[in-house]
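Running low. Got one?
___
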Amino acid sequence: MENTLTKNKKAGYWRGYWSRHWSLYAMLLLPVVFIFIFRYVPMVHLYRGFAVNNTIAPLRDLEFVGLDNFRNAFTNQIFINAIRNTLLFSALDLLLGFPAPIILALLLNELKFERFKKITQSISYVPNFISWVIVGGLATTLFSTHIGAVNGFIESWGFEAIPFLEREGHWIISNVLISIWRGVGWSSIIYLAAITNISPELYEAAEIDGASRLRKMWHITLPGIRPVIATLFTLALGGIMAAELDRFVALENSFVRGVSEVIPIFVWRWGLQANQFALATVIGIFQGIIGMIMLLSGNWFVKKMGGAGFW
């Protein structure tokens, strides 16, 4: 009798649970199906990285060649240069781009005039909604040596034009700064949301103790958002071998081909345009392995520094 009552209670609980939350699971269904179809199903084709390159033959008819495709990839000097360039831009993005939204969020949080604060936030968000194609056109219009408005202004003062987009060193700096300008406002939203969860009583107590704004930022705000910073930093480490294809295609030109050739561009030109799908698969496997290693390393580092980590 008791077992029957227990079963009935459990059944009633689950009926009530599903009647209250079925809509949430219905909304979750589409993303799960999307991830399964476009992330897990293609994993079957990882076998192409260990087989003869053939874009037409089914997987069962492909000849197994072991690690030959990996050897071909890592003896390709263009691919080695693409790895170098990708690591260079990833390091600069972490060094310069990662702190930028944190600093912006801290500064916005200190603004006392709400109207000015909202206007500033809105202006900083806008570039994120501009496609890289338009950003590339704007960069050419503003920074080109011959037709750029910025260089026109510089030359009007009697100085030499600066090759922002025509020399490799200048192009690297311009690329990173343009990327920061485009994404800093949007990325700061997460940190601003985390700041709102910090108890106002901590700031009040600090004011009573005579703490300055800088002290409050350093001892209250930054420790309060440290878990969010650690999480996003770990995720950024996981994508260290990735790069935005649109970003580099929109800003590259023939003068800077030596530094603009990153892994996604290499895959696009060699894998898709040249139909070297086996080579592209090998590069995808390589990126996945490095990304997983960096993600695990970042998680380990965060936990060593006293954070919670992902697991």
